[in-house]
User: Fold these one by one.
Assistant:
Number 1:
Amino acid sequence: MEGIWASGRLTNDGPVLRRFEAALHKDLGWDNVAATSSGTMALQLACRALQLDGEVITPAFTFPATLQALRWNGLVPVLADVEPRWLTLDPASAAALVTPRTCAIVAVHTFGHPADVAALQLLASRYGLALVYDAAPAVGVRVDGVPVTAFGDASAVSFHATKVMHTIEGGAVCTPHDDAAEAVRRLRNFGLGESGGAQEYGTNAKMNELQAAVGLSLLRTLDVEVAGRAQAAAVYRELLKDVSSVRLLWPADTVNSNHAYAVARLRAGTAPLADKVSVFLDRHGVDSRRYFSQQYRSKGALCPSPTPVADAAAEDVLCLPLWGDIPLATVERVGRLVAEAVA
Ligand SMILES: Cc1ncc(COP(=O)(O)O)c(C=O)c1O
C-alpha cells in the first residue's frame, strides 16, 4: 500500500491493477481478465462489449443487479424459471422463451453454484444467442476442473467485500473473445481509445490501485478461505442432515465449490419457514440472510410464464452465517438453533 502512495499512481490502469489481472490469469486460470469497479459494472460492460440488443433470457431468482445491468443497457430481461437443485437458470424454461427478439441468455451462477453450462451452451448455439454468465459469487469455482469463467461468451465476477475473495468493491469481466476484452478495457475508461479521444459511450468503471492491492493480497489466501468455509459447511450439513424441513444446497460432485454461501431451504410440507427461522436466529443474536426474498422481481422485466421454482425459493431460502474462519462452535450453535426453530 505504501508503495502505491509513494508511486503517486493511484488509478487509471496502473501497474498493481495489471499485476492483479495477471495473477487472476495465472492463479485462477481466467482468460482475458479486465477488472472493473464492481460486479454490476462488469456485467453491464460485458453486455455492452458484446453489443447485445433486444430481449435477454435470465433467471427469475437472482440479485437485482443482474436485471439492473441489463436495463442500464436498454435490454429487456425476460425471466425464466430456475431448476430446483441449485436454483440456477432452467435450460428448458429458458428454451421456451426464445423469440426472434432474443439476443442473449444471461445465466447466473447463483450462490456460486454453476449453472448448467453444457445445456445452456447447446441452447445458445441452437438459436445463435450470446451466452453471458453473471458469475458474481463464483470466484474460484471449477466445473470438471475448468474455471467457471471459461464458459460462454463472457463472465462477470464480483469482488465485493461480502464475497469469498474481494477488493472491497470490484469486479472483473473474463471472456474468450479478445475484441470483447479490449472493448471492456476501453468502456471502463470513458471509451477512450489509443489516441486519447472518446470513441464510444464508455463510463467510469475503473478499479483503482488500492483495490487491486487488496485483491492481490487476498488472492494468496483464497485456498485457505475456501477450505475453512468447506469445513464449516460440512458441519452444517452433518448437523442438519436428519432434519426433514431443512435442505442444504450442496455442490455437485463435478464441482470444486468455493462455498460462497450456506444456503438452506426451509419448508414443512408446503409451508415455508425461512421467515420464522430468520426471526428466531435474530432473537438469538445470529445474523442470517433472506437472499432474494423481496428482490427477485424487477421493474421492466417480463415474466411471460409462471416461475414456480423461483417463487418457492424466494419464500424458503435462508443463508446461514459462513466465512473462512468462522469458529466451528458457532456453526454448531447456529445449526442447533435452526433445528430447534423448525421443530
Ligand atoms: C448474482 C449477483 N450479481 C451481481 C452482483 C453485484 O455485484 P457487485 O456488488 O460487485 O456490484 C451480486 C452481488 O452480490 C450478485 O450476487
Number 2:
Amino acid sequence: MHRAVDVKNLQRLPSPHFRVALAACKDNSSLDDLRRVGSLLDNAPASQKILYLPVLYLALDPARIPTAEDLESLQPCTVIRVTYASLSLAMLFRLWITKSSHPGLGSTLWPRVWPWIHFMHEQVEYLPDSIALTEIILYFRFLDFVSANFKPLRDSLLVTSTPGFRVFVGKAWAALSRMKSSPEQFEICVQSVALTLWEGDFTDPVHFMELIDGAGGGLQDLARLSAELFDPTAGQLFTLCLSCLVPLIMGAPDERPDLDPSLREEYLEMLRQHDFLPSLVARMDAFVDTAEADSESMTACFTVLKRLLHAPRTYRWFPSVIRAGLLHTMTRASLRFPGDLDDSVRYFLTNILPEVMVYYHVVTAIDEVLDSVTKVCHRKEFEALAIFDDWSEFLDLAEMRVELVRELADASALKACDNVECGELQDRSHCRRCSGCNSFYYCNRKCQMVDWGRGGHRNQCNSSTMLALADTRNCTLGFRERQFMRALLQYAYRQEVDSIYRQQAEVLVADPDAVLLTLFDYTWSPVQITVHSIANSPITETLDKMGVEWADFVSRAECSRGRMQLHIIQVSDGINSRLWVIPLRTSSSKVHDAVRELALNLSTDYDNEDLANEISAILEEADNSDLVEIH
Ligand SMILES: [Zn+2]
Ligand SMILES: [Zn+2]
C-alpha cells in the first residue's frame, strides 16, 4: 500500500480542514461531508491536495459496490453509495496523480478505481442520470488517469491483464462521437483515447478482438471509429491519431504479436469503405503547412497512404483521394521538406500515379486539379528542387492523359464493320447493329450474314467486344473506362507504330505462320509495347486457359488479314495485373500484307536498320484508314 493513502496524512492538513476530512472518513459519513472535502480540495494549494487522498481511497472501497439485488430494489442507501463513489472518482481524477509525481501510487489505487469504473460502465444505462458518472469522467478522465499512472501501458500488466479493460477502451472510443458538441472537449477526449491506443498493444489478435467488442462488435465499427479520428474537429491531434493507428494499419513494430494478415486486409478494406483515404489526405493537406508538421510525420502519412492503396481494385479510391488534395499535398511536401520527403513523393510520381492513370475516373479527377498543380511546379523555387524532374515527367504524362480524356468527349462514333472480312469504317449511326448482342456492328445485312455464318458470330453472339482475361473476369469496367483504355491503346499505337510493325516483321521472320498479339503493358511507365506470337508470349499460359472466347478472337483475327489485331492491355488494379483484349481494327489489309511480304523475303541475318527503313517506307505509303482505328 502506498503511503499517500495512509489516513495519518490528514493530520498534516490545517486543523479545521483536518476535521472536515476526518468526518468524511467515518463509516456513516454523508454526501455533504464528502462535498465539503471536495470544495476544500479544489481550493487547496497544489502541494496540499494529495493529503486528501485517503478520504477518496476509503470511499472507493470495492466492498461498497452494490450487488445485483441492491440495484434491483434501488434503496436510498444504494443511491447514496453510488453517488458517493461517483463524486470520489471525479475528485480523484482532478488530483492529476501521475507516475512521475507519485511513483507506484497508481498500483495502489487501481484495485479500487477499476472495480467501480467497471461497475459504473456496466450499469451506465440503468443508473439514474443523477447518480451515474458522466461519460466524460467515466471514459476520458479515467483513461487520462490510466495514461498518467501506467507508463508505458503495454508493460503495465496490472492494467492490461485486467479482464474487460480493452473492451472498455473500445467503448470509450465509441463514446467519442457523442462528445462532438463541444469542439474543445472533443479534442481532449480524442487525445485520451488516442494516447491509450498508442500505448496499448492492440495488434495482439486477442486484444484486437476485445477492442472490436467494445467498439460495437464488428470490424466495420472499428473502421468507422478509426476514420473518425481524422475528423477535422479533432484539431491539432493529427500526428497522435496517426501514430496510434499506424501499428493497426502497418503491422506491429519489433516482434510483438500481430494481426492475422487476412484480418488486417479486411480491416483496411473497411477503412477504405469508411472514406478513411480522403479523410487522411485532407488532413495531410491541412497539416503540411502548419508549424507542427515535420518530415517524420509526413513520411508516416505517405507510408500509410501507400499501404492503403496497395490492394486489389484500389483505383476506385483514387478520384476521391486526388480531390481531397493529394497532388497539392505532394507539392507542399516537396517544397517544405526537400530531400527528406523526396522518396515518398517520388514513389507516387513515378509509380503509383502513372499506374492508375489508365483509368478514366482517375484522369478526370486529375484534370480538375492539373492546372493549379502545374502552376505551383513552375515556380522558381520549385524548379531548383532535386525532385523537379520527376514532377516534370509526371506532369507531362498527366497532361497527355487529360488531353485524351478531353478528346474522348468529342470523338466521333466511328465503328468498324464486325464482318472482319470487310472492316469498313463508318459512323455508328449508319451501322446495322446485331440485335442479339447489341455490340456487333455491320455495314449492311450482307456483312451481317457473312459474319453470322463464316465469321462464326452465330456461336459468339453475346460475348463482349472487350474480353477480360482469366482473373480479370470478376473485375468489370464501366463503359467510360473501356472507352478510355481503347483511346489509350490507340494513342500508344500511333506513337509507336513503326516499332510495332518492325517487331511484327521480326516475329514473322522466325515464324511465318505466327498469329500475332501486341501487348501494351501499362504497369510500366512509359508503357512497354511488345509484339509476340500468341503461342509464345509472356501471357500465353493465361491465354490458353481462356477457352472458346479467346479461340473465337484468334479465329476472327486470323481470317481478318490484319483488319482485326489482337491488342492486349495490361494494367495494374492496385496489386495484381489485369489483362483485357481490345481488338483494334483497320479497314484495309494493305499494311498487314506488305509487312508479311517483307518478312517472308527477309533473310534471317537481316540488318536492323534496313528493316526499320523498309517499315517506314510501308507506313509512309499507307494512309490513315490503313492503320488501326478505334472500334
Ligand atoms: Zn461490312
Ligand atoms: Zn450478336
